[in-house]
Amino acid sequence: MEVIIALAIGVMAGAGVWLLLRPRTFQVLIGLSLLSYAINLFIFSVGSLSVNEEPIVRPGLAPTLADYTDPLPQSLVLTAIVIGFATTALFLVVLLALRGLSGGDHVDGREGQP
Amino acid sequence: MMQWSDHLVVGPVLLPLATAALMLLLSEGRRSFKALLNVLSTTLGLAMAVALLLRVQADGPAAFGIYLPGNWAVPYGIVLVADRLSALMAVLTGSVALAALLFALARWQRAGVYFHALFQLQLMGLYGAFLTADLFNLFVFFEVLLAASYGLLLHGGGLERVRAGLHYIAINLVASLLFLIGVAVLYGVTGTLNMADIAHKLTLVPVSDRGLLHAGAAILAIAFLAKAALWPLNFWLPPAYAAASAPAAAVFAILTKVGVYAVLRLWTLCFPAEAGISAGFGDRVLVWGGIATLAYGAIGMMASQQLARLAGYSVIASSGTLIAAIGFDAPTLSAAALYYLASSTLAACALFLLVELLERSREVEMAPPELDDGNDRLPAFIDTEPPAHVNLDEDEVVLIGRVIPAALAFLGVAFALCAMVVSGLPPLAGFVAKLGMLSALLERPGPAAWTLFTLLLVSGLAATTALLRVGVRHFWTAQDRVAPRLRVAETLPIAGLLAATVALVLQADAVLAYTRATADALHDPARYMQAVMSARPLPQPTLGVMP
User: Fold this and answer.
1) Which residue, of B266, B345, B457, B524, is most buried by count of CB atoms within 10 Å of its CB?
2) How far is CA B437 from the centre of its chain?
């Protein structure tokens, strides 16, 4: 499972960085989204990966990390998702405003010299 | 039992939040009411920050105002801590904000919607970032202040602002993602997010995990240093600050200091001299990075053609000075650097406000000439001899007895004072700060200290030259220029900020004693850790039985 998660994070981060360096605003937006997905998964993984384990203490189950998963990264991811979503939406608005004002979708608002 | 005054720590965060929420409920038409509300709330926020500053001046455990917002035991819940550094930054935030707001009331508040609400949210993010003692909470407040700053940067609209805003947002989003990676790695290594607890657990980290720890700390530092505009992470700053409207740019004068604050706080807490093999991790990067930033800022000031970009480069130069000074990890140097932080923030804020007024007077100059009245005589030889022994202007007219318009006189004096503080000329606050740093650097041998020593002097010369050139262009070559129209609301905040820098000199003894105590506390992180870790939640209230 660790390998799959690591591969998923790596592929998304790589694709995100590549898109981030592209000259079109929409590509930059998708790149930022992919990067934030990769980082959300990464935050998940720092709290040790486990399947089918409770984050909240249940009666009758000894409260050790062998029986439970770490709840804190999950709450961090939740916060990071909300904040990332809001800032992505804001970026989208600025992207549209730039497109409306400059008539193109280049990140500098004008096409570079060929 | 908690006193009312114990809630003072959370006040500067809650007040702007409540004000912003109230403003969102009011319609855009009630602008004057919103403006009044904004002024009241900002003034009250500044008053609370000053009250905090007075409170933390005590010695011993009373120097830390600790507040548990959720009443959870310390390493588990979020903690707010007001110590000397936080209180100093909060007071600076309040002062800068009040000046920018008063300036905005004259014109800029009408340039777009939601200005007042965004302004309050910006303040909430700033106060929160300075007061929190939890790493993830710091991330949240960073996002709040950045999201508000995106809105303020775009205030007024126009292609130039939107283009600079897009770059600014993209770069800050990437920096925030790096912030998250750093927080996640540190959490993975130490298992906690409380700053004091992280510092406490760092000594227990096994050698096999040290690499991961250092990588996490370095990634986190990159996020902070990008916000503090360290070279080469600072190419976004001059265009963004030049494009922003004057009050927004004036508030942004403190935004780079948030990055500096975060580095100062976490680096002194986590990697002090007694941290074993991690002691002073990354100090060379801070010192040399700061030196490179200072050089870059000085060259940029010399090279810029626009006054707004010059002001942006002066912000970069002051960031570089601060980061290099912090990196030496010496209390005397940090104390002088904190004094410099206060004076340079106030001066940068005043400079950004002045830029707008100076540009306005240039626009008057560049206004289309009046219609030709057919009376364009050929230039004739001057047939009357000018009187001897008096100064003449270019048209050979006697200069005596000509009145300088009050507005131009104000701008000239304000600009001169501002330039003196920015470039560190005596007798104003910039000089006291630089003198303190120079004398502290003399005690430290080594090439880095000598490089910074030289560069502090050279950058002062560069700043003087660049600002003098602007001054000559704006004030001495102004023939027949129509004096700009200034409103009292626009001159008052500039006068107030400059008076604050003068007060910093007049009270230099007290302020330097304060920053010295701040630096001593920062370089003895055990006090901070002890104070935070010994905070206890209040007992649960017992439900009274109804009689």
Assistant:
1) B345
2) 19
Q: Which domain holds residue A79?
A: 2-50+70-102
pTM of the complete model: 0.88
Q: B169 in contact with A at a CB cutoff of 8 Å? A: yes
Question: How far away is chain A from the Cα of B81, in angstroms, using its nearest Cα?
Answer: 21
The pLDDT tens digits of the residues spanning B106-115 come to 877 777 778 8
A80-83 contacts: CB < 8 A, separation 24 or more?
A80/A36, A80/A39, A80/A40, A80/A43, A80/B180, A81/A40, A83/B140, A83/B143, A83/B176
Does residue A25 lie within any of the structural domains? yes
What's the CA gap between B349 and B311, in Å, rounded? 9
User: Tens digits of per-residue pLDDT, B510-532?
Assistant: 898 889 888 888 888 888 888 88
Record the tokens describing residue B297, joined without a space: 């800022």
Q: What is the spatial distance between Cα B229 and Cα B301, in angstroms, rounded to a whole number? A: 15
Q: Which residue has the higher pLDDT, A113 or B451?
A: B451
Summarize the confidence of residues B363-380 as an average pLDDT: 46
Phi and psi of A24, rounded to 5°? Answer: -95, 140
Cβ–Cβ of B154/A94 closer than 8 Å?
yes
Give the residue, B340 or B539, on which the prediction is more confident. Answer: B340
Distance from CA of B6 to the nearest CA of A (A): 28
A75 located within any domain: yes
Which residues on A lie below 8 Å from B147 (Cβ)? Answer: 86-87, 90
Give A12's pLDDT tier (boundaries 50, 70, 90).
very high
CATH number at residue A17: 1.10.287
pLDDT exceeds cutoff 90 at B179: yes
C-alpha span between B230 and B218 (Å, rounded): 14
Contact present, B116 and B38 (Cβ < 8 Å): yes
- β-partners of residue B194 are B134
pLDDT at B312 exceeding the cut of 50 = yes
Per DSSP, the residues of A17-51 read HHHHTSSBHHHHHHHHHHHHHHHHHHHHHHT---S
At B537 the three-state DSSP class reads coil
Is A36 in contact with B177 (Cβ distance < 8 A)?
Answer: yes
Can you spell out the DSSP letters for B166-218?
HHHHHHHHHHHHHHHHHHHHHHHHHS--BHHHHHHHHTT--HHHHHHHHHHHH
Which chain A residues contact residue B188 at CB under 8 A? 46-47
Cis peptide before B427 (omega within 30 of 0): yes
How far apart CA B266 and CA B272 sit, in angstroms, is 10
How far does the CA of residue A4 sit from the closest CA of chain B (Å)?
Answer: 19
CA distances in angstroms from B185 to B165, B173, B205, B214, B255, listed in the order given: 30, 19, 13, 9, 25
Per-residue pLDDT, B111: 74
Instruction: Assess contact for B99 and B150: CB atoms under 8 A.
Output: no
Nearest to B169 among A47, A94, A109 (CB): A94
Q: What would the DSSP string read from start to end of B248-274?
A: HHHHHTTHHHHHHHHHHHHHHHHS-TT
Instruction: Write down the H helix ranges in B56-114.
Output: 84-106
Cα separation, B145 vs B153, whole angstroms: 12
Percent of chain B with pLDDT over 90: 28
Q: Which of A20, A46, A86 comes nearest B184 by C-beta?
A: A46
Count: domains in chain A: 1
Cα–Cα dist B264/B221, whole Å? 10
Of A80, A87, A107, the CB nearest to B166: A107
Residue A87 is assigned to a structural domain of this protein? yes
> What are B263's two structure tokens?
């580095």
